[in-house]
Amino acid sequence: MRQYKRVDYEAALDQTITIREVLPADHLARFVAQVLGLLDLSAFYARYGSVGGAAYAPEVLLGLLLYGYMTGVFSSRKIEQGTRESLPFRYLSGGMHPDHDTLAHFRRTFLGEIAEVFAQVLLLAHALGALTLREVSVDGSKVHADAAKSHAVSYGRLLELEQVLRAEVAELLQWGEQADQGALPAEVDLAMEIALREERLRNLERAKEVLEARAQERYAAELAAHEAQMRAREEQADETGRKPGGPAPQPPTASGPRPQDQYNFTDPDSRIMKNSTDQGFDQHYNVQVAVDHASRLIVGHTLSNHPSDCGEALPTVAAIPNELGAPEVAVFDAGYWSPNTVAELEQQGITPYIATGRDRHHQSWEARFAQAAEPPPTEASAFVKMAYTLRTTIGKQLYALRKSTVEPVIGIVKEVLGFRQFSLRGLTLAAGEWGRVCLAYNLKRLHTLVQL
């Protein structure tokens, strides 16, 4: 008869093991502890008061948070649970169990200090020979904010609600005048009903002010874009000697907020943006990363609420820590094209490679193997010069590296780490959380690099 290996579950509860048996020397949790031991965390300690009860050391809480983000555990409650049920978390906590409130407070309080840790980890990678920072690629993605569309209101609907609420307040005040005559139902708390509607009116007024300010910002951006279009047409006319075809673009008008402009009451800083995975729209933030070609480490990161990537190139490159220096080359897709971006990067000593448009799929063999065009004249526009640069052999090679550098990094953050929604609200806190995600990715990537 066939024999089976069975478990005595009562006896299994009395098993004795050591964490050293379970976590090998190259385990990710042990690597996190080793790296934390090499970092300068004095900025964290400086924020603690000199009196009070025994506090958890910063490296304990930071290690738990980073390991959580590295393994797709973003909830402070689940991290607290992990210190009891997961051996890697138990190892990093030393058998202690910081509660979720402590973890949540720590990650909200030490945003600036965690940003310094990001730079220190990159310097450590450089010291280990894993990072040289010569060529970088920049790309972005939309990440869902901690806000639902159901908690948003359009400007058109806002005006309608405002009228309805003002009418209700007026009606309630009329009821109040008749209260002495017994016309007011006994169960109605008149003061509370009026206060509730007045509070909603104040909220709507704040939303109106924000949407009006955004409309002014949009008008300024549209005006700048129109001026850039007109300059481009003038450059084209000077270059070809002919007037550009088609009607000249019309200047924008300062029309104020549009009826469809949205304000979200849960996270007002977030914006409605197109989803990256489908044709729908939702509340998002626009996250950006600059990735080193050789190491695939994130060397710079930013977050904004701008739906377009056009203005994100310079801030993301500027986010690279000064201690690392500047890259020699920066590569971008067509969404980042701007003559100003080219000029600014060249002034910083960085050679930009920015696509000027999308390449056609399934090109004919004649187009693929056509001889390279002659270099453009010195007086040619920035657009013409960049288009030529991208058609050179080195331009093609560098741009092709985007597919194996920055694009996979964003895929790993979303699919492997599982980061698809922010837990914190507001630009400042969301940017801090994005920095923590990038730091967690870098630690995981550096763990792989030092094993090679």
How would you portray this structure in words?
- The protein is of the alpha/beta class and 452 residues long.
- The chain is built from 18 helices and 8 strands.
- The protein has helices spanning 9-12, 19-22, 28-38, 42-46, 58-70, 76-85, 87-93, 100-109, 111-127, 155-177, 190-240, 313-318, 339-347, 365-368, 382-391, 393-400, 406-416, 427-451; strands at 135-144, 152-154, 262-264, 271-274, 281-292, 298-304, 329-332, 351-354.
- Strands 1, 4, 5, 6, 7 and 8 form a 6-stranded mixed beta sheet that branches. It has a two-stranded antiparallel ribbon with strand order 2-3.
- α9 (111-127) packs parallel to α18 and α10 (155-177) packs antiparallel against α11.
- The longest helix is centred in the middle third of the chain and has 51 residues, at 190-240.
- The protein is flat, with a radius of gyration of 28 Å.
Primary descriptors:
10% strand, 452 residues, two-stranded antiparallel ribbon, single chain
Rounded Rg? 28 Å
pLDDT < 50 stretches: none
The helix/strand class is alpha/beta
- So what's the oligomer here? single chain
Question: How many H/I helical runs?
Answer: 18
What's the story with the biggest beta sheet?
Answer: 6 strands, mixed
Overall 3D form: flat
Share in helix:
40-55%
SSE topology string: HHHHHHHHHEEHHEEEEHEHEHHHHH
What distance separates the N and C termini? 49 Å
User: How many strand elements?
Assistant: 8
